[in-house]
Design a protein that fits this description.
Elements: H1 3-15, E1 19-20, H2 23-28, E2 43-46, H3 50-63, E3 67-70, E4 87-90, E5 97-101, E6 106-110, H4 115-122, E7 127-128, H5 139-144, H6 152-155, H7 158-161, E8 162-168, E9 174-178, H8 190-194, E10 203-210, E11 212-213, E12 217-224, H9 228-240, E13 247-251, H10 253-263, E14 272-279, H11 281-297, E15 302-306, H12 309-320, H13 322-325, E16 334-337, E17 340-341, H14 347-361, E18 367-370, E19 375-382, H15 387-406, H16 422-429, H17 432-443
Parallel strand pairs: 2-4, 3-4
Antiparallel strand pairs: 1-2, 5-6, 6-10, 7-11, 8-9, 8-10, 12-14, 12-15, 13-14, 13-18, 16-19, 17-19, 18-19
Helix pairs in contact: 1-3, 9-14, 14-15
Length: about 450
């Protein structure tokens, strides 16, 4: 009897019907939303409590079996693929909102709570959780990948909004990091060590999160430009001027075409910036007027505003559905998603270079970006059965990342490293990788937690 067989046997004895070895369940847990091929685990545990995760980790540690945390499967770099088999711990049933501390604007949730679930729960309390990656991801998964999104320019990423964690280590040890105090100089900042570790250091089971007051007024604005360069240069000027924007999203003509196809909108087919402003009515109106003046200076040929919830929702739903919309540009293909970030002042150079590169390889690749913080994505629509197209996409990806690094940027603005960017990760961090490896080895000496991610 192999170790994995013994492990699954012990898990079934301990957890009974919480463990599944069904082929369909295994396949579901063997991939995320990326283009990487499915790599299913040997079994899936549907954990219901932190103690379930503790006991599972102890059993897996006994047999030296890999453990792969799984939230909703919405990650983008093969972060949940079970490259060496093992046990996938699905935390989606750990979905209880444990406490809302309205006076201190924080809350405690289990790892399987999704961001939409939390905000729906908060709707009558005048508070909201701002990190918005688009997908209705689990908050545990968002912490694991250090997720960000459309509102990061104002509210920060998960790094700024996670103030404490409950984490299960590889051997089943349960620890708590951080706390509800607004500041602390007590010891190592273990919370931020685990945020962004992609399940390679521990399994997040609970989170303490910072909440924010719902703004008195929210105004959305769309502006359409003659060139992509004008839109990007305007973004740089807005950020350098310190204007308080809550969202600045860039979409090129291809992305707008896809959105119109899918969401039945009628945006002009032109490079587009989508803005959102939060605050009191006087401040929001003043800032919106200033931004509109700048848009006019950069040749915007159509600027419109939306203050009603219905109109704002229509705009942002269209943006959030972009991942589905892009496939309408070339049905039957797969999406190869890129994700780099550069200093905001370097955005014009980075995007112009990538656009020029794309013209040479003749692949359809709409552009979108959270450009207020320098993060942008090209989505290459490729035929997986065509090795030449895959090679073109991979080489473009390499050049895109190398140029971002040359400009002082990073190989991943928000999706993480997973299995897809390990070589580039090594290039970015150099000797610092050896320090990360030592931290990994000290917490997970047998390499059981999400093996094959971040490090080879």
């Amino acid at each position: 009897m192999t170790d994995i067989t013994k492990c699954i046997k012990d898990l079934k004895q301990r957890f009974e019907d919480k463990v599944s070895t069904s082929a369909s369940v295994l396949n579901q847990h063997g991939h995320d939303e990326s283009w990487h091929l499915c790599a299913p685990p040997d079994a899936v545990l549907f954990a219901a409590t932190s103690d379930d995760v503790v006991q599972c980790a102890k059993i897996c540690s006994r047999y030296k079996v890999p453990i792969i945390p799984f939230g909703t499967g919405s990650s983008m770099e093969g972060n949940v693929n079970a490259l060496f088999g093992g046990i996938s711990i699905d935390t989606s049933q750990m979905n209880t909102i444990l406490a809302i501390n309205a006076a201190d604007m924080d809350c405690e949730v289990e790892a399987g709570v999704t961001r939409e679930q939390l905000n729906q729960y908060l709707r009558d309390q005048g508070l909201f959780f701002p990190v918005d990656p688009g997908a209705n991801a689990s908050l545990g998964g968002m912490a694991a990948t250090r997720a960000s999104g459309t509102t990061t320019v104002k509210y920060g990423s998960m790094r700024e909004n996670v103030i404490g964690l409950e984490v299960v280590l590889a051997d089943g040890t349960l620890i708590n990091t951080g706390g509800r105090a607004r500041k602390s100089s007590s010891g190592y900042d273990l919370t931020r060590l685990f945020v962004g570790s992609e399940g390679t250091l521990g399994i997040v089971t609970k989170l303490l999160l910072r909440l924010h007051p719902v703004p008195e007024m929210i105004l959305a604005m769309s502006a359409h430009f003659p060139t992509i360069e004008a839109a990007v240069e305007l973004t740089c000027e807005i950020m350098q001027a310190g204007l308080p924007v809550a969202r600045v999203e860039l979409l090129d003509e291809l992305a707008i075409k896809a959105i119109n196809n899918y969401s039945k909108t009628e945006f002009p087919l032109a490079p587009t910036l989508l803005f959102e402003f939060h605050g009191n009515s006087a401040t929001v109106s003043e800032v919106a007027d200033m931004v509109q003046e700048l848009c006019d200076e950069y040749g915007a040929n159509a600027v419109s505003r939306a203050t009603s919830q219905e109109d704002r929702k229509r705009i942002w739903n269209a943006r959030h559905n972009l991942a589905f919309a892009e496939r309408t540009l070339r049905p039957g293909t797969e999406t190869f998603v890129t994700d780099v970030a550069v200093p905001v002042s370097c955005l014009p150079a980075a995007i112009s270079a990538a656009k020029a590169d794309l013209k040479k390889i003749d692949l359809i690749a709409p552009l979108s970006g959270h450009v207020g913080d320098g993060n942008f994505h090209f989505v290459l629509l490729i035929n997986r059965e065509d090795p030449h197209e895959i090679e073109l996409a991979e080489k473009f990806h390499d050049r895109l990342i190398n140029n971002a690094l040359r400009l002082g940027g990073t190989v991943s603005g928000e999706h993480g490293i997973g299995m897809g960017k390990i070589d580039h990760f090594n290039t970015e961090h150099g000797e610092a990788i050896s320090v990360m490896r030592r931290i990994k080895h000290s917490l997970d000496p047998d390499g059981l937690l999400n093996p094959g991610k971040l490090f080879t």
